[in-house]
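This is your field. Have a critical look at the following sequence-structure pair:

***
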Amino acid sequence: SAIYELSCEAYKHLGKTSNYYWIDPDGSGTLGPLKVYCNMTEDKVWTTVYHDLQMQTSVGGSSPEKLSVLHLNYSATMDQISAITSSAEYCEQFISYSCKMSRLLNTPEGNPYTWWVGKANEKHYYWGGSGPGIQKCACGIERNCTDPKYYCNCDADYKQWRKDSGMLSYKEHLPVSQVVVGDLDRPGSEAKVSVGPVRCQGDRNYWNAASFVTSSSYLHFSTFQGETSADISFYFKTSASDGVFLENLGNTDFIKLELKSATEVSFSFDVGNGPVEIVVRSPNPLNDDQWHRVNAERNVKQASLQVDQLPLEVRKAPTEGHTRLELYSQLYVGAAGGQRGFLGCIRSLRMNGVTLDLEERAKVTPGVKPGCSGHCTSYGMYCANGGKCVEKYNGYSCDCSRTAYDGPFCIKDVGAFFEEGMWLRYNFHSPGTSVKDLVSRTLLSSADPEITAPDLSLNKEELSFSFSTTKSPCVLLYVSSYTPDFMAVLVNPDGNLQIRYNLGGTKEPFNIDIDHRNMANGQPHTVNVTRNGRDIVLQLDHYPPTSYSLPATSDIQFNSPKALFLGKVIEIGKIDQDIYKYNTPGFTGCLSRVQFNQIAPLKAALRPTNASSHVHIQGELVESNCGASPLTIPPMSAATDPWHLDSASADFPYNGQAIGDGVNRNSAIIGGIIAVVIFTILCTLVFLIRYMFRHKGTYHTNEAKGAESAESADAAIMNNDPNFTETIDESKKEWLI
């Protein structure tokens, strides 16, 4: 059975975050696993494969030979990379040629001096930013080459450095395996070549699915060629208790996978020694409308079946007898030969490393629909922090709009750094809507039907945020109202946190003080406050939640909320004395993932949403994750990763440990004395040498010419070395991909 997932997409749907992973694009086929980088930060996953060619590799200059060939060695075989590119929706590879008197494609009419070699050893005469059959560079396509007579900047043959670069995105030609540079045989000709890694996005195979609507519907494909080895894997989702997944017949030989009952999957075949059946029994029903994975393998030695993470069932083949599976009929997916077919969804069906295109075939088959719905039942739990799972034709996405978070799984903090004197106000109603309208819409969570708009007051709030600061006292957050009611979260002069409620009915505001814990220590702290009527629950960082109660005389309605402030309170009318004192100079530090009921004021300020009109900012808001370390999931524990080099076995002296106090104090003192003596001798020597050379007139140095006028040492080197500016310039641009 496969130890690795088939693609980055599969790791993403196990809830993994961006990292290096081993993937095995053809299951247990001949390709074997390869290590790639999976970038999960966007809706579609990027898979990246690296090579060993340095950026800005210099070619020519001194060598008289005609052609210079650069070879790229990847961290994977060409076949492995092909498996990734063919299943991807889009691939790209950056390529750049910097030239000084070195022509590139010899446009407009000539034979190219330089070309690159792609998949299947084919030569290609187009460059980054252009496409197959178009002998032009990006500037030729965009019509902005330095010399409009040519279609590449380099073809103008200037004595100054020029550059042609862009993305190669015709995935059938990727990856670049060689770059052959030709125009280098004249004196003064120089060139530098850069090639980025191969990056592919999306995985057509992972979501390739079909829904079987009736128990007599099926898809048929050409005969399965699995004489000596068969490796079949797929996902299924159903609410039916039985049905045939797939079957292929021969004269007497056959191979078949079926759901025998709500808890049993069966793999049966006959290679001429009589039928063999392997059954996996699941402790829980498999017809729960969740995705389940099936992996069946058969070779001359044994056969095995695995369902999800349940134990593998293995059957050894007989020592004598037939070993070849001889099949003639078509391969049926779904109902075969009058049997009760599978009802539900089959996805990502791979037979011996090849994904069958269920989707295409389903488009022209009655009773079968392309694609699947209901991915959220299986993957919805990955949408964190209140993010909503949204069904898509091929997969799902997380809608984070009602949360204070961002990213594909709503786990990326949205935060900002506040400088002294900065503040943010979020008005609960936007100009032009009536107060009634507004509060009922934004503050009263839709999940709470018993609160109706007319009373315009809250008897429950949920507030959560995280902050870090080194300055106290300060106001972190304040909610004002059209009445004297308010709520505030403060850091007092000793650095302790205070939650203050004033809902009326009491002489003084009600305070919750968290003493003996300095919160102004520069570390990120998390605050969660929930109030329901008189009961308040506060959770701070990872400490257990503590409960408090408003005094018996206190009102429990927060009347007519008006605005929420971060960093400072700028409000008309009477303001609490302490808050007035804490208000200057204002909060300095970081605030992130601020959420008050359904409102995320910081996110509304930093991400253009329909709530942005409610926000007013004084000062420059700089986005920051506030030192919140995102939770990363290691790709594989060292114990289970067969490719893991045991780092512990390499002996590192003082492996990160401090050297103890055992060092003798006397030796430290002696060391100090020796250092002083050496220093004195050196000073004397310097003085003597200067004295001896005092009369020797001028002395020569290798200082760069133009150093006098340059403002710094770096500038002097740049004035002197024309290549230097280019190098800086290049390195800046090169990785903006």
User: Anything to note?
Assistant: The chain has four domains: 49-203, 208-370, 380-409, 414-430+457-623. Residues 665-692 form the longest helix (28 residues). The domain at 380-409 is CATH 2.10.25.10 (Laminin).
